[in-house]
Structures are given as structure tokens and as C-alpha cells.
Specification:
CATH superfamily: FAD/NAD(P)-binding domain
Number of strands: 21
CATH topology: FAD/NAD(P)-binding domain
Radius of gyration: 22 Å
Shape: globular
Number of domains: 1
Helix content: 25-40%
Largest sheet: 9 strands, mixed
CATH architecture: 3-Layer(bba) Sandwich
Length: about 425
């Protein structure tokens, strides 16, 4: 192939795609990167200041993800509207088992953070404006054809006929619902949990005290994450509530005060009375994995490669670690004079990330299955396990490191004074 139009095409400019573009701009500046995004983008649309909305969707960021954003020079801005999680309380409704994690016990300022998705997107866009990353928006990748030395990508752009771009590699980062993954011939393995996640912001009469609650119930797990001010422990939390199809429809049909009463019954009174619930969003819960997420010239990342149950808030944090692993392999390929679309380069990324995503999938899936059983012997065993976590320092430290996103491989980051440093795989 003669010189391609660009070196890398990223299909999808959401949190995963934009983070990958920024990481490459910071760490592999020799690469020409083009992001193809379905939504229109304009620097003029970026507000001068950010006003959080009560109904804003949010993401749980593990401590390990903070470390990655620090390496990318993004954390200082993100932290302006990121609420710290200083404590985690895990309990089993109707049973005695419980465990508690505290950041101070692990020498950390926080176990994780909660940040609005829109705020994270704005921070990424502002940083990307100062890079050489190119954008095609609104546009969509509709197909791809392998060619010698790379790929030819077909784009559908608003108001124009189909366009084409050549590149050394295509990274699919547009989530698991776009259909591009399937159009390119990847076959995901799906397991439905027969449940739905209801997401909303709620207010309580008592302050959250920067505490995240993971509550396992007979209907499935629910989480309440501290939300709002990064410095003042307020009364707003982000809710993730797991419900069956039937119960979901019942809850959605209720007026807000009745929704709060249902929530009160399932969660209890650890935060006092539920006083408000915002706009409710929901989606079906499915464990989706792609066993072979790479091909010559193509790699899947983020939810396009693996989508998890939201229990323990591992999804985006796993994706972020995978992105940094891919960036490192691209950096090494550039140093070695190899094409970033070389299948051996992409297989190396897959091999390094595989253990992390397999462990994280097993961790999340086992929690769902373990706490989904109502049989008395199983309930007694898991409650004993929760008490054991609270009493055994080694087990508790392992659980805390999983929660903080420090259980998997963290990619090497090129920074002054930090060249060629890699955290051990057991960090």
C-alpha cells in the first residue's frame, strides 16, 4: 500500500474512543489518528463552564483509572467534578453478612471516584483540541476491506455520498450496540442475565459521607455511589438498580414518591429516607465477550470487546486498562518500524489484556451468581464470606485492590522520569 490517508482510524468518539485518541496523541505523537464519530462536534459547542445536571449519567472510576488519567495529564481537570469514594459498604439484604472498605486503611485518598459522563467527555474534547487528532463528524464507519499493508474503510457522512479512507489499522470503539462489530465478521458470545439495570440519581435525607453502597437483594444487586460535590459530602447518589423485566415495568409505571418507597424497602435506611429520584434510564444486562477481538488491521476495544454486569463498577475501568495496553503495543511497533496493524502487534495486545479481562469477567460474574442464590446453605456461605472479608486482612486487601482497579496489568506509560516502567501484573 502506498502511504495511507491516515495511520489509525478509531470508529467511535465516546469515552473509550476519545481516551484512546488522547493517549496516542500524548504517547505516540508520530501516529496520524482519525476519529470517526456519529454525533456532530464543534469546538464552539464546548461551554466555558460546566453546570452539573441532577439527571446526568455517571461512571465509577477506580483508583487505577485515576492513575492512568494522571499519566495522560487529564486528572487535574477531571477532579474538579469527580466525587471521591472514601468508603465501600457491601451487604446482603435479609442476612447478617457485610464488609467495609476504607481508603485510609490502604493509604489512599480514595478508593475510586464518580464522574458525570458529559463532564468526562468535555474534558477529553478540550484536551484533544490541542492535539493533531483529526475528526470526521458526523460520520459513521459502515464497512472495511483488508488491503495489503492495512485497511480500506467506508464512511457514511451526513449530506455526502459514501467516502473512503485508507489506514494501517482500524480500532472499533463504538460500543456493543452499533452493529459494526458484527458487520466486520466478529461473533460475540452473549449471556443474558434476565435482568435490567435501572439508572437514576437519587437524594436521601442523610449525607452519603463519600460512601458507596453495594447491596445484594433477592432481585439482584443494587449500588448507590456518592455523587455531586468533590469536596462536600452531600445527599445525592447515583443509583444502579437491578430488576427483572416484570418488576422493571412495575417500577417505571410508579410515580416518583412510590419509586422512592420501593427503593427504601430494598435498600434500607442506611442513608435515611429517599426524598427524590431523577429521570430513570434502563437497559438489559448481558455478559458479552469476543474471544478473538483482533484480526489483521482491526482491533475491538471497550464494550465492543467485552460488556460486563455493572456490579462492582468494573466495565469502563477494564476498558481503560485495555486501551493503555493497546497504546503501548502501538508505541513499541512504531519504535521497531512495524505496522500498527500487523497481526502480531495486535495479538500481543490481546495476550496482555486477556488475563485482565478474563479475571475481571470472572470476578463480576461470580458476584452476580453467588448473590443470586436464595438457598439457605448458599446464603450462609456467602454471609460467612463477607464477614471473613471484614476480618481477614489478606482477603480484604485482595478485594480492595479489585475494587480499586489494581488487580490487572497496567500498561507502560512513557513519561519523563518514568520511561519503560511497568507495574507488576499483581499490582
Amino acid at each position: 500500500m502506498t502511504k495511507p490517508d491516515t495511520d489509525l482510524i478509531i470508529a467511535g468518539g465516546g469515552l473509550a474512543g476519545a481516551t484512546l485518541a488522547l493517549a496516542l496523541a500524548r504517547m505516540v505523537p508520530s501516529l496520524r489518528v482519525t476519529v470517526v464519530e456519529a454525533f456532530p462536534l464543534s469546538p464552539d459547542a464546548l461551554p466555558e463552564s460546566y453546570q452539573p445536571s441532577y439527571d446526568a449519567r455517571s461512571t465509577a472510576l477506580a483508583w487505577g483509572s485515576r492513575l492512568i488519567f494522571e499519566e495522560l495529564g487529564l486528572w487535574q481537570r477531571l477532579a474538579e467534578h469527580a466525587t471521591p469514594i472514601e468508603h465501600i459498604h457491601v451487604s446482603d439484604r435479609g442476612h447478617f453478612g457485610a464488609t467495609r472498605l476504607h481508603a485510609a486503611e490502604h493509604g489512599q485518598a480514595a478508593l475510586g471516584y464518580v464522574a458525570d459522563n458529559r463532564w468526562m467527555g468535555l474534558c477529553l474534547m478540550r484536551e484533544l483540541l490541542d492535539t493533531n487528532v483529526q475528526w470526521r463528524a458526523p460520520a459513521e464507519v459502515t464497512d472495511m476491506t483488508p488491503i495489503p499493508g492495512g485497511v480500506r474503510v467506508q464512511l457514511s457522512e451526513e449530506g455526502e455520498e459514501t467516502a473512503e479512507l485508507t489506514a494501517r489499522c482500524l480500532v472499533v470503539a463504538d460500543g456493543g450496540r452499533s452493529g459494526l462489530r458484527e458487520r466486520l465478521g466478529f461473533r460475540p458470545d452473549r449471556h443474558s442475565y434476565g435482568q435490567n439495570a435501572l439508572i437514576a440519581n437519587v437524594s436521601t435525607s442523610d449525607s452519603h459521607g463519600f460512601t458507596a453502597f453495594e447491596r445484594f437483594t433477592d432481585a439482584g444487586p443494587m449500588a448507590l455511589l456518592p455523587h455531586g460535590s468533590p469536596t462536600r459530602a452531600g445527599h445525592q447518589s447515583a443509583l444502579v438498580w437491578t430488576l427483572s423485566d416484570e418488576v422493571l415495568q412495575q417500577v417505571l409505571a410508579l410515580p416518583d414518591d412510590e419509586k422512592c418507597r420501593w427503593l427504601q424497602d430494598r435498600f434500607g435506611w442506611r442513608l435515611g429516607r429517599f426524598t427524590r429520584i431523577g429521570t430513570c434510564h434502563h437497559y438489559p444486562l448481558t455478559l458479552t465477550t469476543v474471544d478473538e477481538p483482533v484480526r489483521p488491521g482491526v482491533a475491538l476495544v471497550g464494550n465492543a470487546a467485552h460488556a460486563l454486569h455493572p456490579v462492582a463498577g468494573q466495565g469502563f475501568n477494564l476498558a481503560l486498562r485495555g486501551l493503555m495496553t493497546l497504546v503501548e503495543q502501538f508505541r513499541l511497533a512504531e519504535e521497531q518500524g512495524r505496522s500498527i496493524g500487523d497481526i502480531e502487534v495486535l495479538k500481543r495486545y490481546q495476550a496482555l489484556h486477556r488475563e485482565d479481562w478474563q479475571q475481571t469477567v470472572r470476578f463480576s460474574d461470580s458476584l452476580v451468581r453467588l448473590f443470586g442464590h436464595s438457598m439457605l446453605p448458599v446464603a450462609a456461605a456467602r454471609d460467612a464470606g463477607l464477614v471473613g472479608l471484614d476480618l481477614l486482612p489478606g482477603a480484604k486487601r485482595w478485594f480492595a485492590r479489585k475494587a480499586m482497579g489494581l488487580g490487572g496489568r497496567r500498561a507502560m506509560i512513557e513519561r519523563p522520569g518514568n520511561l519503560n516502567r511497568e507495574a507488576p501484573a499483581n499490582e
